[in-house]
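Troubleshooting log. The previous structure file for this entry was overwritten by mistake, so regenerating from the original sequence record. Sequence copied from the archived sheet and checked twice against the printout by T.R.
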Amino acid sequence: MGGEDSWRQPPLSNCFGWVDLKNIDRANKSAELGIAIGDKLFWGKGYGASALRAMMGVGFHECGLTTIWLRVDADNRQAIRSYLSNGFQVEETLHQDRLRNGQYVDRVRMSFARKDFVRFIPEA
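Regenerated output below.
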């Protein structure tokens, strides 16, 4: 199914970010991951990685997904490093994929396969 299906953690008080699964494709058992830590005071403290891994656990274990993918602006080096260090692999560059501040920017598509989840994140 298309983008109308999503799974999102319920909002918490003092929320400084979000994580969700969207564009769930039930036939191919895949979904797009979205994540943002909006308050820069919380950047670099592991909260994003923790939320990322928790949502991947939901996707793989509770939703039965086989692949979780994401898109990230190609110039967001910090996020790309974080995704790589958490087991995501680069699939492709999507040229002029997003309009940002009146300019089209490239994005990188990355993915993580269920078969790698337990091996990469043993406590999962």
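The chain is about 25% helix and 40% strand. Archived copy saved in two places this time.
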